[in-house]
Automatic annotation (TrEMBL):
This is Pyruvate dehydrogenase E1 component beta subunit. InterPro entries: THDP-binding, Transketo_C/PFOR_II, Transketolase-like_Pyr-bd, Transketolase_C. One of its GO terms (biological process) is sulfur compound biosynthetic process. It comes from Halogranum rubrum. Residues 6-181 form the Transketolase-like pyrimidine-binding domain. GO terms for molecular function: oxidoreductase activity. Its cofactor is thiamine diphosphate. PANTHER family: PYRUVATE DEHYDROGENASE E1 COMPONENT BETA SUBUNIT (PTHR43257), PYRUVATE DEHYDROGENASE E1 COMPONENT SUBUNIT BETA (PTHR43257:SF2). Keywords: Oxidoreductase, Pyruvate, Thiamine pyrophosphate.
Length: 327
């Protein structure tokens, strides 16, 4: 199997190219996705390869972009609209939750909505307001939507292809902090990573730490550091936050009896609470300590240097894991 050494954002582009090459129904649309190749160059070169009828530059109108894409999807196409930043998705929220998520149910299965809304998401790049939010819980709460957050180039391409092939709408959130932070081997050919399946990044016996997106790497770094203190940490990368891989969460927790959840979204109403509830409902008798939530804070996302205090750092993750292990 021949591979290429890609960054995460290059893997996004490769996934789009792979599906567009083999399926004429797949198209890309959004602000500056055509000749400019997107604000992060995730669609670079696709305009020249596939033309302006499949790589469509749109007006700056998120509701219109997603609304048009829903119509295309109902017709039988497979649109992949890009939101320049996830914080710009709010004008399209009505289209996503009132129409895309409900189309199958509303039509009693006569129509589906094979739509993937892509968006760079998360903080850490010193961006202005509305550029750094982590609001995945908004979409995970909505029946009818799948929500995917990759953390490696390999998973990014495979999950994106799976999302495009899915008959129902998928919110595909790309952690822009790690767009170009590292490279990974990615097969040149077509492959898929199943939606709804977590990946164990590190085996351990003392505590299970559940995470996703850009927080996967600092969590793994914290786990390696704590191994020098004799704490054996299992790291589970959820990859898809809706549907959650509840079986993987329970299986890991039953092995360790302790858990922590790491995400950059705010603590209140965050997915850490849902993961904790799964543990309580399915594995309570295995529990040795309270579940530790290591998250962002319940404040508006701060600007510039304060980001370093808001985002869970390696040191803060280590402290939270120690709290759970030493309880």
């Amino acid at each position: 199997m021949s591979t290429q050494n890609l960054t995460l954002v290059q893997a996004v582009r490769d996934g789009l190219y792979t599906e567009m090459k083999q399926d004429d129904d797949v198209l890309v649309m959004g602000e500056d996705v055509g000749k400019n190749g997107g604000v992060f160059r995730a669609t670079e070169g696709l305009y020249n390869e596939f033309g302006d009828d499949r790589v469509i530059d749109t007006p700056l109108a998120e509701s219109g972009i997603v609304g048009t894409a829903i119509g295309m999807a109902a017709y039988g196409l497979k649109p992949v609209p890009e939101m320049q930043f996830s914080g710009f998705m709010y004008p399209a929220f009505d289209q996503i939750v009132s129409h895309a998520a409900r189309l199958r149910n509303r039509s009693r299965g006569r129509f589906t909505c094979p739509l993937v809304v892509r968006a760079p998401y998360g903080g850490g790049i010193r961006a202005p307001e509305h550029h750094s939010e982590s609001k995945e819980a908004f979409y995970a709460h909505e029946a009818g939507l799948k929500v995917v957050i990759p953390s490696t180039p390999y998973d990014t391409k495979g999950l994106l292809i799976s999302a495009i092939r899915d008959p129902d709408p998928v919110i595909f959130l790309e952690p822009k902090l790690i767009y170009r932070a590292f490279r990974g081997e990615v097969p040149e050919e077509d492959y898929t990573v199943p939606l709804g399946e977590a990946a164990v990044r590190r085996e351990g016996t003392d505590i299970s730490v559940f995470t996703y997106g850009a927080m996967s790497r600092p969590t793994q770094e914290a786990a390696e550091n704590l191994s020098e203190e004799g704490i054996d940490v299992e790291v589970v990368d959820l990859r898809t936050v809706s549907p959650l891989d509840e079986a993987a969460i329970v299986e890991s927790f039953k092995k360790t009896g302790r858990a922590a959840v790491v995400h950059e979204a705010p603590r209140k109403g965050g997915l850490a609470g849902e993961i904790t509830a799964v543990i309580q409902e399915e594995a309570l008798l295995y529990q040795e300590a309270p579940v530790e939530r290591i998250t962002g804070f319940d404040v508006p996302f701060p600007l510039y240097a304060l980001e370093d205090y808001y985002l869970p750092s390696v040191a803060r993750i280590e402290e939270g894991i120690r709290n759970a292990v030493e309880f």
